[in-house]
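Researcher: I'd like a candidate sequence for this fold, 997 residues long. If you have to choose between options at a position, lean toward the conservative one.
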């Protein structure tokens, strides 16, 4: 290990995740309260949105300045003033942006919702319901180009579109932006929307690279828990409290189409629902229908519309008052008319095949007018047979090509679409791909360490395996023992250090009988021609592929959701996948997706994976994470089905389920009752619904944010303990027969699985309704008077059909097996109250560090605010301490060891001087150690104060200190380090970081 590791800034970004509520910087408790704008009344005359602030309403508007840099709360050099006013229909916001380099103003993007953040841009953030969770973002660049999205703690949805207006103007030393946001464009709620809203303003100034905000967020702008407020909105928002749920936009083909939506109103209303379609020339076509709305009862409306040619269109769905014509609700609806033929490839490494899926974008009645020919070529030579579709029966037929005999190599598929009767091809396209062998010569004839069965089950050396996984969990002996006893069989082995450190993690995991996955992250994305990055991926894979604890690799998390260029990013991942596959035939690649992409977008990225899936965290209801219309916890099943469709049900799907409360992630609640966890019944339902819908693995994310002990952590462990006893059923094959639901209707969903070892049948039945259901279930090939064990419920039922009662979201598991063991229930100490430190508990006056005495921990293993590396080198201890309950220790295992404790994210700037100190003792005396600090900025590592000579410890507590000055003009953050050098052990306590005035 080198003397200084300047890569720290890349690996410590998430160190203070547990302290998100402290803004990731020390001294959070000393910051001022969030700023507030107070409105004095509505504007008598609304402004003209032209970028010029010359109307009278702006003179009386609420105004504020004092923007601070986003990374640290110091004033921006190029200041911004905001003005806010309103009337009964709009919120009006103006920005006045001082600019000393007007000749360098960036203003190139002209496309609506394009990459405006490359330019000088101002941004408005709104939280009208003050839930500190959801938000709206409206941005306009210095050219007047608009961008909008709706987001929440799970991310933003740039496809969200709304009708609003903006304009800009320029002066000699400043520029202005005016925004008019109709209240009708926002989701306002009768009981939530009041006279005070959450609000924030931001500016990205390109000439100097300044990023500034009005209410300091300490990083990402989209932090509604850190917005300021605007108060005094004297508006009757009940007028705008319409719910609009877009159900279907029709075929989106040239010619006639139909849009379907559901409208709800809090009161009885006579309304007019209309659709405006903006054509390429700018003109708009309108269709409208009158509706009578009943309070809180959805009304379905259908609206016809015409699309003249291929391309992108913007539509606006609006609800108007039937008498006055005033728009009370508006929603943007972007649509696209696709080309005549779209092609997608589904390569499958383990099945030794590739499936071509053409999509013919014509009306159903016109399908038979076309024929398609597909030829597979390897290195330019035809691989028979030629696949022909003399006519289309479905718009998306599947055309498989068997590659098992053709072998590895470079392939292409030539596709021709022509009229069915005669004539030249209308469309000719060529698709290219690389096929790697499923095994290497090193593997020989032995079974692959991990392979995938014909029914998408995972096989470990030929034995069926159902993953029950957990993310980001402590890898201490106690923690690994705890999760193994709970029934988890898979853990994340994060690769953020050296290959040697990750190998040691895998050793520890294997010692506890667990498997691990290694997230490769951005290492999987290889730009064309980037041999250096390909080499780094080869080093990681070659160094870890032979470890027996390795189950699979993980690709970039949610790659489609964060992509700005889907095809480019998917191709870069596919390039990395091919490199990985050429090196490691033994372990599959898994890709976890966000629950917000289309099937086609997911499929594009799924070329570069062997296992797909998604994360979905729908508690509390109504959920907003998924872009599917279902807002209940049953969306877990919908997302499972969507991801299975995105792999044609020919690759396994893992589902990542909820192991946290949303409030825990931001901690703005400070551990209050706002933290809503899934109940045991909800967690159990979500797990089994995912299985019923086809999931072949379940993992839990977010447990790192949990207080421990806690009631929810106990609840989740009890569930996983149950699932682990069901392992051989969950891993088993589907029985191939189906339950007939005689009573219970569509609410009851079932699955019959065979035990992987005994072949006994198990029936999993779930109630997908929020209401209780009396059900009658006819089981095929079962005797009329058979006795059924109802697993994990300590009861039995008799008969066929089974007659049983289902609570809302209930799960019942029936079996007549006599060999299935007696169920075991995990006994855990009762936990009724969760203790969390308050932000003020974690700080000391004059000390810039969080938790400097290591007194606060949520797992009794790692102090809040601190982390250590490499794995297993650090610990908390009560045996040796100077004050309080805990100290921390580091153990150097060899002459080359350099373990460390680190705290990062401390806001700073050039010229600041500090004193960093700690109480230290060592064993044996003479053990070498040091304290040091380094600072970073947008470009990464910028400098530091690292003593050349180490300090020498004694077996008695002694203060060590370091004084330093931040000497780089672009420095924005620093981190401090406690480190042991070589063999020996050191203890640290009562650490301080003080600014010297």
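Model: Candidate sequence:
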């Amino acid at each position: 290990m080198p003397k200084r590791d300047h890569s720290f800034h890349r690996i410590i970004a998430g160190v203070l995740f547990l302290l998100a509520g402290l803004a990731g910087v020390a001294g959070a408790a000393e910051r001022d309260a969030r700023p507030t704008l107070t409105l004095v009344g509505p504007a008598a005359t609304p402004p003209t949105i032209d970028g010029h602030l010359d109307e009278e309403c702006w003179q009386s508007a609420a105004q504020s300045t004092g923007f601070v840099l986003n990374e640290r709360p110091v004033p921006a050099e190029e200041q911004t003033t905001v003005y806010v006013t309103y009337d009964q229909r709009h919120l009006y916001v103006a920005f006045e942006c001082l600019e000393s380099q007007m000749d360098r103003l960036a203003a190139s993007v002209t496309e609506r919702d394009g990459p405006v953040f490359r330019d000088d841009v101002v941004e408005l953030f709104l939280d009208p319901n003050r839930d500190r969770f959801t938000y709206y973002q409206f941005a306009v660049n210095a050219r007047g180009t608009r961008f909008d999205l709706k987001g929440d703690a799970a991310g933003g949805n740039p496809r969200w579109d709304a009708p609003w207006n903006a304009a800009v103007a320029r002066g000699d030393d400043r520029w202005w932006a005016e925004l008019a946001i109709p209240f009708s464009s926002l989701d306002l709620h009768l009981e939530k929307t009041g006279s005070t809203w959450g609000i924030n303003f931001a500016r990205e100034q390109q000439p100097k690279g300044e990023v500034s905000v009005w209410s300091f967020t300490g990083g990402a702008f989209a932090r509604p828990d850190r917005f300021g407020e605007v108060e005094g909105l004297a508006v009757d928002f009940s007028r705008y409290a319409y719910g609009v749920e877009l159900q279907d936009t029709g075929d989106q083909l040239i010619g006639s189409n139909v849009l379907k939506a559901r409208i709800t109103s809090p009161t009885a209303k006579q309304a007019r629902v209309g659709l405006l379609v903006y054509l390429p020339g700018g003109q708009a076509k309108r269709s409208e229908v009158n509706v009578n709305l009943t309070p809180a009862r959805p009304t379905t409306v259908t609206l016809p519309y015409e699309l003249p040619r291929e391309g992108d269109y913007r539509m606006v769905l609006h609800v108007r008052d039937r008498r006055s014509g005033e728009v009370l609700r508006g929603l943007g609806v972007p649509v696209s008319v696709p080309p005549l033929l779209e092609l997608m490839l589904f390569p499958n490494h383990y099945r030794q095949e590739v499936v071509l899926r053409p999509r013919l974008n014509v009306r159903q009645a016109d399908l038979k007018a076309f024929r398609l020919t597909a030829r597979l070529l390897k290195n330019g030579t035809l691989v028979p047979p030629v696949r022909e579709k003399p006519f289309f029966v479905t718009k998306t037929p599947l055309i498989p090509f068997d590659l098992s005999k053709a072998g590895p190599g470079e392939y292409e598929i030539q596709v021709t679409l022509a009229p069915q009767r005669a004539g030249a091809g209308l469309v000719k396209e060529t698709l290219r791909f690389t096929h790697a062998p499923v095994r290497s010569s090193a593997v020989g004839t032995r079974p692959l360490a991990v392979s995938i069965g014909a029914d998408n089950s995972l096989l470990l050396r030929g034995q069926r395996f159902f993953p029950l996984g957990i993310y980001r969990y402590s890898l201490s002996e106690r923690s690994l023992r705890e999760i193994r006893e709970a029934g988890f069989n898979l853990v994340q082995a994060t690769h953020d250090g050296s290959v040697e450190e990750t190998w040691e993690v895998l050793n520890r995991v294997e010692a506890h009988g667990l498997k691990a996955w290694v997230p490769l992250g951005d290492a999987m994305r290889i730009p064309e021609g980037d041999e250096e990055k390909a080499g780094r991926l080869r080093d990681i894979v070659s160094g870890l592929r032979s470890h027996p604890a390795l189950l699979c690799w993980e690709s970039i998390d949610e790659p489609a959701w964060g992509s700005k260029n889907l095809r480019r990013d998917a191709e870069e991942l596919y390039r990395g996948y091919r490199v990985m596959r050429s090196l490691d035939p033994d372990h599959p690649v898994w890709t976890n997706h966000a629950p917000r992409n289309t099937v086609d977008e997911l499929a594009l990225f799924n070329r570069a994976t062997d296992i797909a899936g998604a994360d979905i965290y729908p508690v509390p209801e109504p959920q907003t994470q998924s872009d599917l219309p279902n807002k209940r916890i049953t969306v877990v099943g919908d997302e499972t089905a969507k991801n299975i469709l995105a792999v044609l049900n020919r690759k396994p799907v893992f589902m990542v389920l909820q192991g946290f409360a949303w409030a825990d992630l931001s901690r703005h609640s400070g551990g209050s009752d706002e933290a809503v966890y899934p109940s045991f019944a909800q967690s159990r339902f979500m797990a089994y619904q995912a299985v019923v819908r086809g999931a072949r693995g379940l993992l839990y994310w977010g447990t790192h944010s949990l207080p421990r002990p806690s009631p929810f952590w106990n609840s989740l462990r009890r569930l996983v303990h149950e699932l682990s006893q069901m392992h051989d059923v969950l891993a088993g094959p589907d029985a191939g027969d189906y339950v007939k639901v005689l009573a219970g209707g569509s609410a009851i969903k079932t699955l019959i699985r065979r035990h992987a070892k005994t072949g006994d049948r198990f029936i999993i039945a779930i109630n997908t309704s929020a209401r209780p259901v009396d059900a009658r279930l006819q089981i095929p090939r079962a005797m009329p008077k058979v006795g059924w064990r109802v697993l994990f419920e300590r009861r039995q039922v008799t008969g066929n059909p089974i007659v049983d009662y289902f609570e809302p979201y209930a799960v019942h598991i029936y079996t007549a097996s006599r060999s299935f063991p007696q169920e075991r229930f995990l006994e855990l100490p009762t936990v009724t109250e969760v203790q969390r430190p308050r932000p003020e508990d974690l700080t000391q006056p004059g000390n810039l560090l969080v938790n400097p005495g290591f007194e606060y921990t949520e797992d009794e293993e790692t102090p809040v605010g601190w982390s250590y590396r490499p794995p297993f080198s650090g610990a908390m201890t009560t045996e040796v301490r100077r004050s309080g309950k805990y100290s921390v220790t580091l153990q150097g295992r060899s002459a080359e060891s350099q373990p460390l404790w680190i705290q990062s994210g401390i806001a700073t700037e050039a010229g600041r001087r500090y004193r960093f100190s700690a109480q230290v003792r060592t064993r044996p005396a003479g053990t070498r150690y040091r304290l040091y600090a380094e600072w970073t900025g947008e470009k990464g590592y910028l400098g530091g104060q690292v003593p050349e000579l180490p300090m020498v410890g004694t077996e008695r507590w002694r203060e060590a200190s370091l004084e330093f000055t931040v000497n780089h003009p672009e420095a924005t953050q620093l981190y401090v380090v406690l480190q042991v050098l070589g063999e020996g052990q050191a203890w640290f306590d009562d650490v301080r970081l003080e600014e010297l005035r």
